[in-house]
């Protein structure tokens, strides 16, 4: 019987503590810097003696992509401009420059990877050799966050 009474009392105390935490008053200190003041001509004046922050251009991702393809900057992408990147990739693969891509030229990266992994030159890979062909993934960068501002408790 005492267990039920103690459990009920503990549950009531937890509900009361939660209610106090969620209905408590938040700090009234501003977390963000003050907003720029507007003058009579509606131009923003930076607060204090801070320099104004430069604004980024309003170009979208599609506009940037379009500009990468539009080499002559005439506002239109010709077929030759569109295929330039593919021609360069083809030229890298066409090692003998005959204008034809053989299977060996196309698969050169894979065959080189296989030959490098096959350490005993047996023409086959065992599990250990195959493990060396795994893609090397870059580790996720650790968060380089600014240390929290010290509160003076006043």
UniProtKB/TrEMBL annotation:
Residues 57-92 form the EF-hand domain. Residues 33-63 are annotated as: Disordered. GO terms for molecular function: calcium ion binding. It comes from the Bacteria. InterPro entries: EF-hand-dom_pair, EF_Hand_1_Ca_BS, EF_hand_dom. It comes from Sphingomonas jeddahensis. It holds the Pfam family EF-hand_5. This is EF hand.
């Amino acid at each position: 019987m005492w267990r039920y009474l103690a459990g009920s009392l503990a549950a009531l105390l937890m509900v009361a503590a939660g209610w106090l935490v969620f209905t408590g008053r938040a700090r009234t200190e501003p977390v963000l810097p003050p907003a720029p003041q507007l003058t009579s001509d509606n131009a923003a004046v930076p607060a204090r003696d801070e320099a104004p922050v430069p604004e980024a251009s309003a170009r979208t991702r599609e506009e940037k992509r379009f500009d990468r393809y539009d080499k002559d900057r005439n506002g239109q992408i010709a077929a030759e401009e569109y295929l330039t990147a593919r021609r360069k990739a083809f030229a890298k693969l066409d090692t003998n420059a005959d204008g034809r891509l053989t299977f060996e030229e196309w698969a050169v990266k894979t065959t080189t990877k296989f030959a490098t992994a096959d350490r005993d030159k047996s023409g086959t890979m065992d599990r250990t050799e195959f493990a060396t062909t795994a893609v090397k993934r870059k580790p996720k960068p650790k968060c380089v966050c600014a240390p929290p501002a010290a509160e003076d408790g006043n």
